[in-house]
Design brief:
By secondary structure, this protein is of the alpha+beta class. It is built from 15 helices and 18 strands.
């Protein structure tokens, strides 16, 4: 079946006013004040079909619009980064106009100095017929070892781990997102027609700045998920691990470590990923995914992660930290390396990752023009196009409205001849980019 993809990203935020550090809620309030001015809320669907909101713990969060390909979702996610940067710039301009010295730093990472973790969640639309618990169990070995392809890396007391989320995931399948976090969330929220669809909500990934890593994260998962959908589960059964959750931190610390299997044998994360990469059945359009996947595994098997630092985010960070340490003659636990680690994830031109990418050390899959377009324009081939048209038209007409992933409601005020009335429109098909009902709705209320 066709697939809809989406990425939700929670961002780290640090703020200072003059020499004083702002609390997290104060910093978030400053960041979101332009959004409140424009939308009268800290939770808004934008003209590109995506959603911008303030999550638990005062974390800014951006959810991409519905996308039909992994690359389209990567571009939409990067557009979310730009939305955040623009929001910070607007907040700083306001502070300057008010005579304040304000600093806001946004980070696309997953941990802070206090041990808190915030996520980057993936959404994959699947058929209602797919059993979610069985699917999560079959995918566990893949998701646990997938950090080889798309981990972002983390320096911990002088040791380098390839994933930031590995130590913050505790179950394979469950409903919580902030405590006992699972690899796959079990809440039944399809955000679409529940008779036809489910949403596989994956919590196991790091927040990627490197576009090739983000693309591999979604595209490889899509291919493995198709094995489940097509009933080709033999290789996934063979690749089960005795204790997937125990294997997560093991792989993060040593990608070549042996992992226990149910029959008492062992396998490395590299070998497990290779079995799956060779078992998937890509279409000609998807073959570049498997080629890139195998290229990464070949490099890691040879002990040469630097050769894929243009693709794998944790390898790019590891090389950067090693070069900085050697250049300055630092001990492996020198606090300056921790500062470099954090600066790697800072959004905007001052971030170290941005500089690496600008110099070609990490490949881009998008163009600046594609990202700029995605900041303001929804994907043309999904429901996001309808939502964006409704939001844009309602704002232009000054209508009072509510919007969510599934629907749109206009609140018509009371008049002398009738009471206040709500006019609701439901959009339950995420593949529907054109709708006569939406056209009629627009003509009636925003024409």
């Amino acid at each position: 079946m066709e697939r809809v993809f989406g990425i939700e990203t929670e961002y780290g935020l640090l703020g200072r006013r003059g020499a004083s550090r702002l609390g997290s809620s104060d910093a978030a309030d400053r960041l979101f004040r332009p959004l409140v001015d424009a939308y009268r809320a800290t939770n808004a669907f934008l003209g590109n079909g995506g959603r911008l909101y303030l999550d638990v713990g005062s974390h800014p969060e951006y959810a991409t619009p519905e996308c039909l390909t992994p690359l389209q979702a990567v571009i939409a996610s990067r557009a979310g980064d730009e939305v955040m940067v623009d929001l910070a710039a607007a907040a700083l301009a306001r502070a300057e106009a008010d005579g304040e010295t304000l600093t806001l730093r946004l980070f696309k990472n997953n941990t802070d100095a206090h041990g808190n973790s915030y996520g980057s969640h993936e959404n994959y639309l699947v058929s209602r017929a797919l059993d979610p618990k069985t699917t999560a169990d079959l995918l566990a070995g893949f998701l646990v070892t997938r950090q080889l392809l798309c981990g972002t890396g983390r320096l911990v007391r002088g040791s380098f781990w390839i994933s930031q989320r590995a130590d913050h995931l505790h179950t394979g399948y469950g409903s919580t997102t902030t405590r006992a976090r699972p690899l796959v969330n079990s809440r039944d929220e399809p955000l679409a027609d529940p008779a036809r669809f489910r949403r596989l909500h994956v919590l196991a990934g790091d927040s990627n700045l490197a576009e090739p890593s983000a693309w591999l994260r979604l595209a490889a998962t899509d291919l493995v998920l198709r094995l489940v959908e097509q009933g080709h589960t033999e290789v996934l059964q063979r690749m089960r691990l005795a204790d997937p959750l125990a294997a997560l931190p093991v792989v993060a610390r040593d990608p070549r470590a042996p992992l226990a299997r149910p029959d008492g044998s062992t396998i490395t994360a590299i070998a497990l990923q290779r079995e799956l990469a060779e078992a998937v059945e890509p279409t000609p359009d998807q073959e570049p995914v498997r080629s890139a996947w195998l290229r990464v595994l070949d490099a890691l098997a040879a002990g040469e992660p630097d050769t894929v630092a243009d693709t794998v985010e944790w390898a790019a960070k590891r090389r950067l930290l090693a070069e900085y340490r050697d250049r300055h003659g630092l001990a492996v636990d020198d606090p300056r390396l921790a500062a470099v680690d954090l600066a790697f994830h800072q959004l905007g031109p001052d971030g170290l990752f941005a500089r690496l990418e600008a110099h070609g050390a990490v490949r881009r899959l998008s163009t600046p023009g594609q990202v700029a377009q995605a900041v303001t324009t929804p994907p043309a081939n999904t429901r996001a196009a309808l939502r964006a048209r409704l939001v844009t038209a309602a704002r232009a007409a000054g209508l009072d409205y509510n919007v969510d992933w599934l629907g749109f409601t206009v609140h018509e005020p009371a008049r002398a001849d009738h009471p206040a009335t709500d006019h609701a429109l439901t959009m339950s098909d995420p593949f529907e980019a054109r709708s006569a009902a939406v056209e009629e709705f627009l003509a009636r209320f925003a024409g």
